[in-house]
Amino acid sequence: MKELIDTFLNYLSIERGLSNNTIISYRVDLNNYLTFIEGKNIDSLSKISKDNITGFMLAQRDKGIAPNSVARRLAAIRMFHRFLARERILKNDPSTLVDSPKLWKRVPDALTLNEVEALIAQPNVHNSQGARDRAILETLYATGMRVSEAVNLKKDNVNLDIGFLRCIGKGNKERIIPLGKKAIASINRYIKESRPKLIKDGESEFLFLSRSGKKISRQSFWKIIKKYAKLARIKKPIKPHTLRHSFATHLLEHGADLRSVQEMLGHSDISTTQIYTHVNKDRLKSVHRQFHPRP
After folding, report:
1. Which CATH code fits 2-103?
2. Domain residue limits, the chain
3. Which of 3, 95, 169, 185 has CB 3.0 to 4.6 Å from 81, enough for a Cys bridge?
4. Max CA-CA distance within the chain?
């Protein structure tokens, strides 16, 4: 069965052109799935039923795996079984009858506007790292980029004159995202005053650099966000996507249309973007309870 997973992943990489990060995630998901199946004494993929797949998903939920992660694992399993059926390795695809765990999805944690302002205000812009960190936070909140996308953002992909950047997202899909005035000012200051001090030898194509002059890592991005959240005394759980969630939530709260937000976030399916409308509804309910004379 492991050989079939390798065959499937090669297909995704070569014929579908999926990114290395996606392939790695699918490998982990499918290996977990295979371990569960083997634990049920199932020695052949042809013996897997809908109930086995549902059982795997429920087991993942019971382990405390986030609903989005469970949904992603189901997507990997569906693609795997669909591939096996299309290649006539299996006669049937048991995953077609499995319901997606949409009801398990939790509303993403988002910061309030005041919390975002407090977070972004923390870096000391009078030193190189502080100016870089301010530019990082401004960019994440202004664009809703994933941390992995911001890490790989190249200097030439940012056009401060017209206020746009070119982002390469999942599956090497390109999208153009506008930048606000504050983000433009922070990036411009970083490029002119601080970035040259971080460069050690020659030049780097990447926008955000570490102290050693190399491309900053995802782990460093994560540490930067946590560091300034703590300084800002933000009590909410802080995750790498917190500013991305805040970006989407605040746009919708201020009247942006769902399709535009979907395009800026780089979601291939608008149903993924729609989860942020639940945040908006929760806020409305809170306001209603607080101010309506008969809540």
Report:
1. 1.10.150.130
2. 2-103, 113-289
3. 95
4. 67
